[in-house]
Amino acid sequence: MEKSDVRSLYLLAAFLVCAYSLPFLIGIQFGTVRADEQWFAYLATVVFAGILQGGVYAMFAVGLTLIFGVMRIINAAHGEMVMMGAYLTWVAFFYLGVDPLLALVFTLPIAFLLGVALQKVLLNAVVGQPELTALLVTFGLGLTMIYVAELIFTTDFRTIPYAPQTVQVTRTIAVGQNKLISFVMAVSISAAVYLFLKFSRLGKAIRATALNAEVAMVCGINVQRIYLVTTGIAVALAVAGGALVSIQFGFNPETGVVYTLQAFAIVILGGRGHYVGALIGGLMLAVLENLVSLMIPNGTAAVELAAYGLMIFVLLIRPGGLMGVKEA
What we know:
The chain is built from 12 helices and 2 strands.
C-alpha cells in the first residue's frame, strides 16, 4: 500500500471518529445525553437496533455494488427497486394474504426476471459507455418508476403490520421482533449470495468478469450472460431489501430516493465494487443514523444530513472508501 493510501486511510479513520463523536457533543448541548444507567441502556438498545438495521441496508446495497463491480454502471434507480419490493410485498400481504417473508419465494424470481429484462432492454446499451451516461439513464428509470408507482398506489404512505412484539435480548436491550427477523433474513440472504459468488462456477465467472471482462471473454465466459445474471441478482437483492424494510417502516413511491442515497453512501464508504465493504458500510451508516436520531431532538432531517455528509466527506478524504475501488 502506498504512503498516500495509508495517509488517506488514517484521515478517513479520524473523520469517522469525529463523525461518531459529533452526535454525543450535540446531545450534550441539547441535554439529551445523560450519565445514568437508564440512558446507557437506551443507548445500547439504539446501537443494537442500528446494527440490525445495518444488516438490511448492507444487503440491498450489495446489489448496487455488484452492478458497479461487474459492469461499471452506477444504478441511480436502485432505491426505486427497493421501493418496488416494498409494494410487491404489500400487494402480496393485503390482496393475496401471503406472509411478507413467504412472499419472497414469489417476488424474488419475479425481481430476477425483471432485472434480466432491464439488462436486455436498457443497460446493455450503456455498458462500456462513460459512467455519466449510465447514471443519467438509470436516473430517468428511477423517475419513471416513481411516477408509475404514484399512478397505481397514490402518494399515501403504506405500512405492513408484522411481528410488532418486542424481544428482550438482554436485561437492558429490547428490540422489535420485526427488526430481528429482518436482520436474520438479510444476513441469510447476504451469506447465500456471498457463498454463491465465492464457490459456484457461475459466481466465479461473475467475479472473473468483474476483474476483467475482456480476459473473461477470451477464457470462454459468456460475458453477456454474466451481465444478465448480475443485474437479476442485484434487482432481487433490492426487492428483498424492500420487503424487509416494509415490515419495519412506512413507505410511499418517493421513499426510494432515500434508499438510493443510503445505498450510495454505503457503497462509497465501503468501497465501490467491494462486497465486504458494502456490508461494513451498511452497519456503520445505520449505527450513525440511529445515534443522530437519539441525540438530536427532531432529528429526522439530521439523519438524512448525516448520510449526505458521510458520503461527501468520504469522497473528499478517500474516494476509494475503506476497501478501495476495484479496478477493471
